[in-house]
Amino acid sequence: TNGIPRGDIDPERYKIELKHRLDLDFPDDAQWRLDSNFTLLSDQYYLEDFDRTEYQSDPAPDNTLGLYRKDDDSLLSLYGRFRLNDFYRTDTRSPEITFDRVRKPLFDSPILHEGNMSFAVIGEKAADLATNTIINPLLQLGPNDPTAQTLLNQLNGYERQLAEQILALPKNDPRREELRTQLLDSNYSRLNIYQEISAPMTFGNFLNITPEAGVGYTRYDAANWQLDSTDRTYLYGGVEASTKISKDFGGNRYPRWGLDGLKHILQPYVNWSVVSTDNITIEDPQVDRLTPTIRPRPLDPVRFNAIDNLASWNIVRVGARNRLLTKRNDTSHEWFYLNTYFDAFAEDPEGMRDYSNLYNEARWQPLPWLAAGLETQFPIVDDGSGFTLYNTYLSYMPTSNFEFTMNYLVLNGNPALDDSNQLYFQSYLRLNDKWGLGSLDVVELADGTVTQQQYTLHRDLGSWVMGMGVSAVDNRLQ
Question: Side-chain half-sphere of 254: how many Cα atoms within 13 Å?
Fold first, then answer.
């Protein structure tokens, strides 16, 4: 439904999923579990046609089987990732073992330690259809061939960057074959270690300062192509400073709006983060890489998942958190939350920005059956991040048998994502203990097109739930 010619598709289409968690009882104090997560699809367009919600968040679902051990201090993971669907680019792990340690005192000292270690045997293979119809024909062409640009336009992201690198080389250059292997069917191992320490300190009972320092090491050993650089080290240093100002408005009690007393906490903060590492080139392995997003990146490497795209940065994040607290069931309840912040770049890892957009993240949860939120970002200095976003949601249950969720999204000017002015409405009506009706409607307000409609009937069978329904999609394109 994206308007791109598809060719022939088998009319017998399907999606088969197995998502299962098995808790294991071993004779230690940890929690053990075995997780299965498999999705078999008939073709590369199935999710786009029949499950657009999943397609927008996870267009190429993983297929994994993992064993996990969790205790109060750590998480140990041993899992494999498999290639069941050959029509999108897939990476495999056979296996990957990861050990994560939570932030805890180091040898009973005031210094805190956290970190992770992982080792994986990785394979990455291009989609069969793209290999046969786009990439192989493209790699037979020279850089000035007019047909090359037409084929390049059908690739994006990492694959396009590699293909452009190959085309820029002379046809007899031996590096062409190395890059071709990396693009089509690469195999290598990766060892990654990152350890971090921090030391929270309080001055004058009002100023909290937490300096942080970390060091990481990543090593790649290729199995079927030659690497120019097999390892790199990255260093991290940062400091976060914050303070809290509070005021108690104790007499405010409005049960209709979930208020039983009210306390306001204001927390201004500054977070400075510096990472220094070797430059990344397109010829380096990049299986865990950045993808387009409207969200700011995490500033702490321990929470940065795109290991192979970690680049040097120097960023200062300035902001303030506002929290309104009330009492609920004799405990503290966050009635309202607002986080406002922006980034200033001395070294921007993703572009030439001096400042980011101004971010606002608000959520309001006054009652168990009512919640609302607002997310905005827009430039305030220079061009900021170069785009604007307004995203609101409302979740409401007016009766015990009916609930609905409504989202309104406006995105304008993002360089990687299409502009959108979208209204999303989802509802569920409980007819009785066994039957229910669901609906989903998505409207693109820019031209009034109802892009998605879905109406379903649900039957509760105890351990099973059965559903059937109808759906219609209008892609707004020819």
Answer: 8
